Structure formats: C-alpha cells, structure tokens
Amino acid sequence: MRFHADTYPRGETLATLNAGTMLRAPRLHSVAPMIVAQRCLNLLRARKQPRIFNISSKMGSLWWKERERGGGDYSYCSSKAALNMLSRTLAFDHRPEGIIVMALTPGWVQPDMEGDNADLAPAESVRGILDVIVGLTIADSSKFLTRGG
Question: What distance in Å separates the CA atoms of residue 77 and residue 50, rounded to the nearest whole number?
C-alpha cells in the first residue's frame, strides 16, 4: 500500500532515514488537518457545539515514547507529535469561541495499516471515537485522548 510506505516506513532508523519521507509525512499528518480546520472555521463558528478532532497516534505522544522506550519511526512519530502540538495550539486559540479541539488516537486498528496483528476492527474503533466525541465538553479541549476516553 503506497500510503503506508510513504508516510509510515516500518522500521525506519537513522541509517534508513529518507529526507523525502521526512518531508511528506508532516504534510499529510500535520499540515493537511490544519488546512481542513482553516477552511471549515466559519462553518464551525456557525454551529452549536463545534468540534475539531484530529486522528493522532500514541506514537506521537512524548509520554508514550518515554514509557515504551521506543525509538526509530522518526518520520511518522514526529509528524504525529507535530499534529498533537498543533491541536493544542488550535484549542487554546479557539476555546473562547466554544470550539472544542482535541487529538485522538483510534487504537491499534486493522486491516490496512496494521494488518491482522492489530486488535481492533475498524467499526469498533469508530464506535469508540464517536462515543468520546459525543461526550466532549469545552473542558476537554486541547486533550490527547484514546478511543476509550
């Protein structure tokens, strides 16, 4: 799958790091969600209980990287960490307008990106995400949550 190879090269190490991949990953994982938010901002302002949720990954969490002592995967992890910071910044900027912004990790989802090793079917992940999104309040804005909350 081309998406996988270009934006999440498995087993990436410093020795295999590719500048092209390092530049492509943030465009997809960080910049694109911000452009979508920018283009939808006026629509969000016109709605009751507006929400922006960005699909992130625990691999973009500094806490997870420290806890798991995981290394490598530089392109993917750094692009998701950037998305997490952009989500927080966006949340603080738009909290006065009542717009809830958060980053959410969907869990380890099958089949395309993770294959049969993953523990969640896509439908199960989506159900968990929707349950979290529905229950959000402005106090949740800027948080990094899992599909279970």
Answer: 28
Residue 91 belongs to domain spanning: 2-146
Q: Each residue of 11-55: pLDDT tens digit?
A: 788 999 889 988 999 999 999 999 999 999 999 999 999 999 999
Tell me: cis bond preceding 122? Omega within 30 of 0 counts.
no
Concatenating the DSSP letter of every residue in the chain gives -HHHHHH--TT--TTT--HHHHHHHHIIIIIHHHHHHHHHHHHHHTSSS-EEEEE--GGG-HHHHHHHT----HHHHHHHHHHHHHHHHHHHHHGGGT-EEEEEE--SBTTTTTGGG-SB-HHHHHHHHHHHHHT--GGGTT-EEETT-
| Total domains, the chain | 1
Task: Report the CATH number at residue 134.
Answer: 3.40.50.720
Q: Which residues are tagged catalytic?
A: 76
Could you tell me which of 33, 134, 132, 130 has the C-alpha nearest to residue 89? 33
Q: Are 95 and 81 in contact (CB under 8 A)?
A: no
In this prediction the pTM is: 0.84
Dig out the tokens for 63 from the structure: 């806490």
